[in-house]
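We include this case.
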Amino acid sequence: MTSTLPCSMPGSIDPLAHLTTEAPSSLFRILGTFLAMTAGDSSLELVGALTEGLLDTPSYALAAEHLRRDPACAALIDERWIPGEQNLEQLAALPAGSLGHAYAAALGRLGYDPNLHAGMEPSSDAVYVELRLSQTHDLWHVVTGFDTSVNGEIGLQAFHLTQFPYPLAAVLTAQALLSTTIFEAKELPALVQAIHTGLQMGQRARPLFAQRWEEGWEKPLEQWRQELNLLPAQTLVAAPGRQGAADAAGVDNP
């Protein structure tokens, strides 16, 4: 029998070579977590494993390079800027309508720790980008208005994708489309609409990655949105049974 796989010729590039020469374990980890999530596992541990697998690929370094095109993003990456610990009680005491007050209210409702990433030291630009995105994920929910339903979470991931090529957002969006198509086809139009909304919002908005949110807790949330050209997403109502992985990753609307 003749093989149907493309063969390497002297001086040519084998399109399958990277599967055996560039961290094959990361490929299997990515595919394994993707399939487990499609089957319904929505644990934070699984998202973490997916992120670690993606960090072993060139995709995160390319995302960091893309972000560097913006001077403010480049400055943040060069500095590897990580703010100090945040006190939710102090933030909650800020005036109603301020970013800090809205953020504290959102995290307080869900019982999240705002200092989960305190003290971490990124070893590369790629690791810093993911660390900072993970640290501010809940803030992005607050300022964009996307809720923590599955549709709200994927809408936010789509928002990322027109801001910069965020690897985790690409995989989570693809996984949600596949899972919904197979298991909840009736929900597909709503999911596609959320993705459409996120893509449009991200394209219009100024770079959110560049923002030093923690230096402007007192600023009104609406002022932040106006300055960033953000039209907040309308609340996306979760369909029955679709309040899963998103809860682990985001926060409710303020």
